[in-house]
Each structure stands twice: as C-alpha cells, then as structure tokens.
Automatic annotation (TrEMBL):
Ranges of biased composition (kind: Polar residues): 185-194
Region called Disordered, residue ranges: 159-201
Protein name listed in UniProt: Uncharacterized protein
Cleaved signal peptide residues: 1-22
Keyword Signal: yes
The entry's keywords: Signal
Length: 201
C-alpha cells in the first residue's frame, strides 16, 4: 500500500513539472537506495553530468599534483600559512580576505579560491610578517616555485641565498599561475628588517 502511494506521489511530482511518468531521470546520487528505487520502477538512471565532470577534474588535479611539484608545494605553503595565521593573533583581522585552504573533497575547485584569497591578501600579509620578522615564511613559495612550465624551456632557478640579493622576475612566465603572487614578494626581505633594527637604535 505504501509503495502504491509512493508511486502516486511520484506521478504527481512529474506532472507538476510537465514531465510524463517514465522519462529517463538524471540523478546526482549514486547511492544504493536511489539505484534500487529506479530498478523498482524499471527506469534507466543517468548520472548527473556535473558530478561526472567533477570526477574527471578531481582526477586531473590529483595527477597534476603528482606531475608538477609546484602545485603540491603551493598547497602545502598555503596550508602552513593558514595554520600560522590562525594561531597568531592580530593577523587575520588585518587581511583584506581570509586565506582559504584547499578542500579535501573539491580540491580542483578550491585551488582557485585559495589562489584568489592569497593574491588579494599577499601584500598585506607580506607587510605584517615583515614587521614581525617572519617574512621567511613567504619565501618558501618564492624560492621553490620560480620555474616555468617544461614546455617553455625557460627555467628560472632561484636559490635561498639569491632571494635576499636579487629581485624576483618581473616578466610573468607563460602558464605560470604563481607569477602574480611572486612579484609581490619583497626584493630583499632581510634588508627591510636590518633597516628597521638600525632605526630603532
């Protein structure tokens, strides 16, 4: 009796959307309860295209992190910065946008949110950390990710020592998603600190 009533409700819902009962449904859920339900009504179930695309993009993101070390370094750096900011008072409130952390379930999508939040707050974060003599936390990103794609064959190598004596490249390498952030890194982080110490004498 309950099953008949359920089918009756389903037909009412279909009719409310001007759909004839028996049309091929598209679902976002692949759980056993959904699969069983459509088996009972003998209907074909198609998976949601958006969810299929998410699976493809998520797989591509995982492969990107394995193939390109800079993507993994980027996520690790931002994760460390976010942890430091949350544990240190007086930083988060001074940033124009909270530093996002990559999501464990939607990594490919959250990467863009992370990059956007970091790009918006990087200048303020640099000033705050420099004033606290913690600017070295930013230069992990600047030092390890100063490379272009392998296809360009234009590799820019910057060691930890050279960061303090030379400026990051001003030309944005092709296919380099981190160039806009690295250009905001102070050319000589230790110099500003020494100047501050000198002025305080």
């Amino acid at each position: 009796m309950k099953f008949i009533f359920f089918i009756y409700l389903v037909k009412i819902i279909f009719n409310s959307f001007n759909l004839s009962y028996g049309d091929t449904p598209i679902t976002t859920d692949s759980g056993s309860n959904i699969v069983t339900t459509f088996k009972i009504t003998d209907e074909t179930r198609l998976s949601c295209m958006a969810h299929r695309c998410n699976t493809v993009l998520e797989t591509a993101w995982d492969e990107t992190k394995k193939t390109h070390k800079d993507s993994e370094i980027f996520c690790s750096c931002v994760k460390d910065w976010r942890k430091f900011i949350n544990q240190t008072s007086g930083i988060q409130d001074e940033l124009p946008k909270s530093i996002e952390c990559n999501s464990g379930t939607r990594l490919w999508r959250s990467y863009f949110k992370v990059h956007d939040s970091l790009n918006a707050s990087f200048t303020a974060l640099t000033q705050i950390l420099t004033a606290r003599n913690k600017q070295h936390r930013l230069h992990v990103l600047a030092g390890n990710l100063l490379t272009t794609s392998a296809d360009d064959r234009q590799i820019l190598i910057t060691s930890t020592d050279s960061i303090s004596s030379s400026s990051p490249p001003q030309k944005k390498p092709k296919n380099d998603p981190f160039a806009d952030i690295r250009q905001q890194v102070p050319a000589n982080p230790s110099l500003s600190c020494r100047q501050k110490q000198h002025l305080n004498r």
